Amino acid sequence: MVSNTGISRETIKTGYPFIDQDIGGIPKGGITHIYGPAGVGKSTLAMQIYLGIAKRGLGCFVVDCAQSYSPSRLLQLCSGGHSFFSQITVFQPKTFREQSDLIGRLHRFIDSNLCVIIVDPITSYYRQKVTPQNGMAMYRQLAEHQAPRLLGLALDYDLAVVVVNQISSWDGETRPVGGDALHRYSNLEIEMARLNTSKSENRWLIVKRLRGEKYSRRILAKLETEGFQTVKVYKESLLEE
Description:
The protein is built from 6 helices and 14 strands. Helix 3 (71-77) links the parallel strand 4 and strand 5 (88-91). By secondary structure, the protein is of the alpha/beta class. Strands 3, 4, 5, 6, 7, 10, 11, 12, 13 and 14 form a 10-stranded mixed sheet that branches. It has one domain: P-loop containing nucleotide triphosphate hydrolases (Rossmann fold, 3-Layer(aba) Sandwich). The relative contact order is 0.20.
């Protein structure tokens, strides 16, 4: 169900309490933006999302921009066989232009069974190719073409869209690659970070719901072979308008 504000009130169910209860669910009709440093577990979280959906017999599109789709890793995360892998359709663009063209054509492949589109990582090719000379043109491709098209798909077909992003440092500030290009289109943001000790398998997740009932929630989670498990959920706070 989509409200008269264009914001879906529903979230998709994955079967993982960590996602469905502690994070608060992945909203349909909008974009979930996951970002953090390399190796923090962003792709693992994205895999848990679409695996949980595929297990329910629903369709998942995975736009693999790192050419790293791994069925063996998926098998580590799931139990009960892999018959539901047939619900997962993988696209592997090889350049930023191919990625942009693919996002523009994804509507042609959508059917009534599709539930989620994952783009992981959406800024991989962007980061490889951006220069001081082409930076504005690349930014516009991301902010004025790819992000709004993905949001349009989420709204038009009542889907969940999840984009995985990297981080970079600029003028001493760490922020998602592309700056606000994805932030302004997102319903939900999940910032992931390591604890101070590099040996710890625990991660911080800062969850911010930016549309509808706005709130911020901090979660301490452990990254295990089978995916993320909650250690502790900290008190949430309402975000100011």
